[in-house]
Design goal:
heterodimer, A: mainly beta, 22-stranded antiparallel β-barrel, 5-stranded mixed beta sheet, about 60% strand, B: about 300 residues, 11-stranded mixed beta sheet, 5-stranded antiparallel beta sheet, 3 helices
């Protein structure tokens, strides 16, 4: 059926491409060492100044007039391969690229995905996993989200947290995809760590604007994270033992034919292992309490022949606080045995199956079916046993969101001037905005109550079409449309979102880029903190709380200096409608009542300029980013209806990171971040009410700036080759010069002078850590 | 430079830098003093208001700093000058000897002091809303941890339009005593995150029961409150008088209601300054702060 539908489209497009004698060169690009496919690799026809890129599954296709052509295949961190091909018939050519060691990278001709000045897409940054792993790590745990925070246009939330705010957007406006599946809460331990174990990851791409039509559902960013496929050639492993967590990743082929490979990865903290004996000894042995989190990533992929490939992958992670107390006493009925158990747990689970099929040399299809689930549970179980009497009080609060989705994407490459992508998807969202179950039982009384249990089911339909068009050798455009239909509570919302990006090559190394996008979002996050608390609730749009809409325009320059430095300068302007904030006086702790009554609806806008330099090759690599931006909000019922700066409005934001490889055995890295102080609301004056209570007066929302935020992090890596593989010691220091960065400010009395003062609370002093890493 | 030398230099620098801990001063925002006016007058009572001034955040908020004793305060009744209020140094308030609040009248207070912008506020005295019935049911239910609760039920005819109510339940013999009140009633404002209405943590202060008629405007409404049974028992005092628990209900203006709601929110820990945006307390005083309100009160002794 799908083939039938596609046929007319293909015929029309074929007509447009003409009937001259043309042949197609196609195949897959993969890593020679691991066999993993390389997405976004560049394929360039040297003597014709034409090119394309491999798609999300390493597939490429280019159709050219019959001729002998010199084709260069390149990818970031890999040695470029140049093939001379007599293209007088359709040709299958699978290419394996060999990773280049960064020490040698300087001599490699081209070492990047499609060079920055050539790409149509703007506001996009690829973060190599190797770079993320080389950067100084908080408590020795390399973290994707913390690395993303080093990019211009991305503001970090509170110190140490993994929350991100992109171009003035909120924490709910980031579409964070793991193997194409949205992950709703990416935080462990209240945001100090993210759920992504870097050992299990293959690539990270961050988009802040100029979104292609294939993405939708969030206003401000797309973070596309792919897990490793698993080494198809050999069995390998890597892992680490750190200050708070250990991890292990194994990957390899299954069977001698190397048609199946797997990757499995696990990480667990051991805070509880250290904490439990201390808690027990402090409580006289009655109390057993602790906290831990863990992550499990797994992937298996099957090569079903030349044209079909199946990937199955999943993620499962959980945070858990637990406490169990036993105590004996004497009640009216005699000796009593009491036990109290309390658990607080939250986590994500994702599962995805993907089936790639190559219909023909120019047409590639992918079916994706996934499930994503986030849940947050609190349980309290209080039992009392005495002769003739057993009493129990059990309470459970649970909330969460679950998605089921299926999508079909098609890539069609009729000729080098077009790269057409189109697709459809259907998603069912199940929202659980908070339910509570209570069980009370005794000899005379039994009650099992479930209150506020209200699933909300919503259905979302998406369709898109986009074309990356080469209009002339200098001018390229990516034009697309994204259509969304969202049905919830008998309401049906629709939107058509145009997307357009242009690239004009001023010189072979310099291009001018422009983009415009409209984005819609049908989901809101109820949060007071923005730091990824497990209590944050995802809720759908309603009649009262309509969909969020953003328009963003950007203009920029991209420059590639001798394939060593990539420089980009971009200016942007973004407006956001129907953003929400808690109403004045509403408490997020109050789970009673309707959430719609507790929020205000308003608008926001952000504009600014971003500058980014990246050096990806040589002994010394690194990046430098600077952002100058303004972000404001306006709500009729907040701040007396006046415009106020967004909490994460940051005028200046400077970030730099450097990695220097002294030798194969010794590597140094450092990062430094500086940001204008966070906007907060502070009282401007105080008075006494009729009962002589102090009442603080707040003049303007977020009208006060905390001190600027900056810290320097440093790490050293000592590596040594062993018979079994390689081991490394990683010594990291967070906040090297012990800056006391503001976390929040409060007012209290200095009792020695009886004078009130504003006091600043800081979280992290200098924190050294050491971890052991190994690879085999 | 050898690795060992590099390590030595690094750790030496670290030790020096780690000793450089410093505290950060946070300056208080700029401040211009304004007048503060407070007056809560029940229908049938004489007018009485207090006048104060705002203080900078780095100045202690004491009576001696905050109270204004040399202000002029004028009272208007339905737009006509009614009295000039005089300062009572014992009660530390400005009081009228002539004017008593009456339902249906609109009152305006204007206050000023040399060197500061004068302030004014207006309030209309509402009609009282008497109860049709009040009942007291003993041991009607249990808290989630098994403590017995008495129910206080009262019915009343809610007048047309938007109405705002404050209620208080006082233990027998004590109009200032503290008592935990619980309720299922959805129109009553709750300030805790507790979902179970009869959990100890869902306790509402006995004099902070606020509700509006948004869901029952113009109809007959029954409100059910529950309170600790032990504190709700009547008793005979040494003088031979029977002391009963009391239910007090105030019919207030929207300004009054909103001001009290914000004041209650302020006094609660809503998660700390990191997690919440503060509540701006909005009164009805023009050019200044505070609240001027005239309300109607109904008091019922519980059987």
């Amino acid at each position: 059926m799908k083939r039938k539908l596609l046929l007319p489209v293909i015929m029309i497009l074929s007509c447009l491409t003409g009937f001259s004698q043309k042949f197609t060169l196609n195949g897959y690009i993969s890593d020679k060492k691991t066999g993993e496919r390389l997405l976004g690799a560049s394929i360039f026809i040297q003597n014709k100044n034409l090119g394309t890129t491999s798609n999300g599954y390493g597939f490429y296709s280019i159709t050219l007039p019959a001729d002998t052509v010199e084709v260069s295949f390149s990818f970031a961190g890999y040695a470029t391969r140049i093939e001379k091909i007599a293209l007088f018939q359709n040709t299958d050519l699978n290419i394996e690229l060999l990773p280049s060691r960064s020490m040698e990278a300087v001599v490699v001709k081209a070492t990047r995905k499609e060079a920055i000045q050539n790409r149509t897409q703007m506001s996009t940054i690829d973060l190599p996993i190797s770079t993320i792993k080389s950067l100084p790590a908080f408590l020795g745990e390399a973290d994707v989200m913390k690395a993303i925070q080093l990019l211009p246009g991305v503001q970090a939330g509170s110190e140490g947290s993994s929350g991100i705010y992109v171009r003035g957007g909120g924490p709910d406006q980031n579409l964070i995809l793991l193997d194409g599946v949205p992950v709703y809460n990416v935080s462990h331990l209240f945001g100090f760590f993210s759920v992504f174990n870097t050992d299990a990851l293959h690539s990270v791409e961050v988009m802040k604007g100029g979104f292609p039509a294939r993405y939708g559902g969030r206003l401000s960013s797309v973070i596309d994270i792919r897990m490793k496929e698993g080494n198809k050639n050999e069995f390998h492993g890597e892992g680490g033992i750190g200050a708070i967590a250990s991890r292990l990743t194994l990957e390899g082929p299954i069977g001698k034919k190397k048609k199946v490979s797997y990757m499995i990865s696990g990480r667990r903290t051991y805070i509880d292992i250290f904490m439990r004996p201390i808690v027990k000894s402090q409580s006289g042995g009655d109390l057993d309490a602790g906290y831990y989190f863990y992550d499990l990533n797994g992937k298996i992929n099957f090569n079903l022949g030349e044209k079909d490939h199946i990937y199955l992958s999943g993620y499962f992670g959980k945070d858990k606080f637990f406490a169990k107390e036993k105590f004996n006493g004497t009640g009216m009925g005699g000796d009593e045995k009491n036990t109290f158990r309390s658990d607080l747990k939250w986590g994500n689970a994702t599962a995805v199956a993907r089936w790639n099929h190559e219909f023909n040399r120019k047409l590639f299809g992918n079916l994706t079916v996934y499930n994503s689930h986030y849940s947050f549970d609190i349980e309290a179980d209080d039992r009392s046993e005495s002769p003739g009497s057993n009493e129990r009080y059990f309470l459970k609060y649970f909330s969460g969101i679950r998605d089921w989705s299926a999508r079909y994407d098609v890539d069609y490459l009729p000729n080098p001037n077009h790269f057409i992508k189109m697709g459809v998807s259907g998603t069912t969202h199940y929202y659980k905005p908070g339910a509570i179950q209570s069980k009370v039982s005794s000899a005379s009384f039994n009650e099992d109550t479930l209150i506020k249990y209200r699933f909300i089911t919503a259905t979302e339909l998406d369709a898109y079409v986009e074309d990356d068009i080469r209009i002339s050798p200098k001018l390229k455009a990516n034009l697309g449309l994204h259509f969304t239909g969202f049905s919830v509570n008998r309401e049906f919302h629709t939107s058509v979102q145009p997307r357009a990006s242009f690239r004009y090559l001023v010189t072979p190394d310099l291009s001018l880029k422009a983009s415009y996008v409209k984005m819609n979002q049908y989901i809101h996050l109820l949060t007071n903190s923005g730091i990824g608390l497990p209590t944050d609730l995802w809720v759908p749009v309603t009649k009262k709380v309509p969909p969020q809409i953003a328009h963003q325009g950007a203009l920029g320059l991209a420059y590639n200096h001798k394939n060593r430095y990539e420089v980009s300068v971009e200016g942007y302007y973004k407006t956001m409608q129907n953003v929400i904030e808690y109403a004045e006086g509403a408490s997020y702790l109050d789970a009673t009542g309707n959430w719609e009554d507790k929020v205000e609806i308003g608008k926001g806008w952000s504009y600014g300029m971003e500058f980014f330099v990246q050096k990806k090759t040589g002994k010394t690599t690194g990046m430098l980013g600077y952002t100058l931006s303004w972000t404001n909000r306006r709500f009729d019922n907040l701040n007396y209806g006046k415009t106020f700066p967004y909490k994460y409005d940051r005028r200046h934001d400077l970030k730099m990171a450097v990695v220097h490889k002294v030798s194969d055995a010794f590597e140094l890295s450092a990062s430094w971040v500086y940001g204008t102080g966070q906007a907060i609301t502070l009282p401007t004056e105080v008075y006494l009410d009729a009962n002589q209570r102090e009442v603080e007066v707040y003049d303007g929302r977020n009208g006060f700036r905390m001190n600027s935020f900056h810290h320097l992090d440093f790490s050293m890596k000592f590596s040594k080759k062993k018979k079994w593989g390689e081991r490394s010691w990683l010594v990291s220091v967070y906040n090297v010069y012990n800056r006391q960065n503001p976390f929040f400010i409060y007012r209290n009395y200095d009792y020695s002078t009886n004078v009130p003062k504003f006091r600043q609370v800081s979280l992290f002093p200098i924190i050294p850590s050491i971890s052991y890493q190994f690879k085999f | 430079m050898s690795t060992k030398t590099a390590c030595f230099i690094f750790f030496a620098c670290l030790a020096v830098l780690a000793a450089c801990t410093r505290n950060t001063d946070v300056r208080a925002p700029a401040h211009e003093p304004k007048l503060v006016l407070h007056g809560y007058v029940a229908v049938g009572e004489r007018f009485e208001v207090s006048v104060g001034r705002t203080l900078a955040m780095n100045v202690p908020a004491w009576d001696s700093n905050a109270l204004v004793k040399n202000a002029w305060v004028l009272l208007y009744d339905n737009g006509v000058f009614a009295d000039s209020l005089r300062y009572d140094s014992i009660r530390r308030r400005y009081a009228s000897n002539l004017v008593t609040a009456a339902s249906g009248h609109t009152y305006r207070v204007v206050a000023g002091v040399a060197g500061m912008t004068s302030v004014d506020a207006e309030a209309t005295a509402p009609e009282p809303v008497p109860a049709i019935s009040v009942s007291h049911i003993r041991n009607a239910r249990l808290t989630t941890d098994g403590a017995p609760l008495n129910d206080i039920r009262f019915r009343f005819n809610d007048p047309a339009g938007n109405n705002f109510y404050l209620a208080a339940v006082y233990p027998a013999g004590s109009h200032g005593g503290f008592l935990c009140v619980y309720t299922y009633e959805p129109s009553i404002e709750k300030y805790t995150g507790e979902l179970l209405a009869f959990d100890r943590d869902a306790c509402i202060d006995n004099d902070e029961i606020l509700f509006t008629d948004r869901s029952f405007s113009g109809t007959t409404k029954e409100i059910i409150l529950s309170a600790d049974a032990a504190q709700m028992e009547s008793y005979t005092d040494p003088s031979g008088n029977i002391q009963r628990p009391v239910l007090r209900r105030l019919n207030v203006s929207e300004d009054h209601y909103r001001y009290f709601k914000h004041m209650i929110s302020l006094s609660r820990d809503l998660g700390g300054p990191t997690f919440t945006d503060p509540v701006p307390v909005k009164g009805n005083v023009r050019n200044g702060y505070g609240l001027f309100s005239v309300f109607a009160a109904s008091v019922d002794s519980l059987p």
